[in-house]
Write a structure and sequence with these properties.
There is one protein chain. By secondary structure, the protein is an alpha/beta fold. The chain is built from ten helices and 13 strands. A seven-stranded parallel sheet has the order 3-2-1-4-5-6-11, sandwiched between helices. The chain has a two-stranded parallel sheet with strand order 7-10. A two-stranded parallel sheet has the order 8-13. Helix 1 packs across helix 7 and helix 8 crosses helix 10. The protein starts with a strand and ends with a helix.
Length: 299
């Protein structure tokens, strides 16, 4: 297939690009002009990879270059680096709408969207940040456009793995341990979350790509392992695994030093049955995933 991936230089996007190239698809990678290509360095010479900048007319040029069968939209802005509200809305809502319009105009078959997970019965979570609100607003547009293009909305749990962004929770914790900081201030960490390794997430996307002809005009899938662990347990597992490699680690984990966010969700609810019924299952548990991640730091 001819597959277009937005956010291609990002954590998830780069892993998808590499998987799709391994599966002999042609990949049209969309990035910002200023994006670093280091995550794609291993495949830059692949003759089936074409890279376009999203700035200016890059998006239209990409669709004009070859017929796009499927779009995988992973580009987003978390707002962790002090970005303005306008920047967050442009990345998470307006660019997505432009992408939808362009894909529809050029008769693309299917649009995979990367969504953030939240409890549908807890409306407050939708408003915890500009990021989550903008992502959920885009889903409303996806439902509207599902009359014109097949939509697959992927609601991802807490992804982690090699080459993630340092501003995200798991890499940030590991960097603090690597720097052997004296104290790591955290909440009590009793929130239950589902941490899923990037390889299992990519497996889910790949499976659904091959099953898309059997899906409805709008499909939605929770993507997680089904195993909820407290943040405290996950951090302690990281600490234990890291200390095996660096016995001189002295960092104190100070749970309870920070308050929970207002409206903090203490336990998420997920339904993995629709995805598992299609033949997908996670293969990397937390212990194995953490060990792989820490080993990667020293390779």
């Amino acid at each position: 297939m001819n597959i277009l991936v937005t956010g291609a230089t990002g954590f998830l996007g780069s892993h998808l690009v590499k998987r799709f190239l391994q599966e002999n698809h042609t990949v049209i990678a969309i990035k910002r002009k200023t994006s670093d290509l280091k995550r794609l360095s291993i495949c830059l010479d692949n003759k089936n990879l074409f890279i376009f900048d999203s700035d200016d007319n890059g998006l239209k040029d990409a669709f004009s270059n070859v017929h796009i069968d499927t779009v995988f939209h992973t580009a987003c802005c978390y707002g962790r680096k002090g970005e303005s509200l306008e920047t967050i809305l442009d990345a998470n809502l307006m660019f997505g709408i432009k992408l939808l319009q362009t894909a529809t105009f050029f008769n693309t078959d299917t649009f995979f969207n990367t969504d953030t997970f939240f409890n549908t019965d807890t409306l407050l979570q939708k408003y915890l940040s500009f990021y989550t609100l903008s992502k959920k607003q885009f889903v409303d547009w996806l439902k509207l456009y599902s009359e014109k293009i097949q939509i697959v909305n992927m609601k991802l749990e807490h992804m982690y793995g090699e080459n993630d962004d340092d501003t995200k929770f798991v890499p940030w914790i590991l960097n603090q341990l690597k720097n052997n900081v004296s104290e790591l201030k955290l909440t009590k960490g009793l929130q239950k979350r589902d941490f899923i390794h990037i390889s299992d997430v990519v497996d889910a996307y790949s499976l659904l790509l091959n099953k898309k002809n059997s899906l409805k005009s709008f499909s939605e899938f929770d993507v997680g392992t089904g195993d909820l662990v407290t943040i405290r347990n996950f951090v302690e597992e990281m600490y234990s695994a890291y200390k095996k490699i660096q016995p001189t680690l002295k960092t104190k984990l100070n749970f309870g030093a920070l308050p929970y966010r207002e409206g903090e969700i203490m336990e998420i609810k997920e339904n993995l049955t629709p995805l598992k019924d299609l033949g997908w299952k996670p293969t990397v548990n937390c212990k194995t995933g953490i060990e792989k991640l820490i080993k990667n730091l020293y390779e």
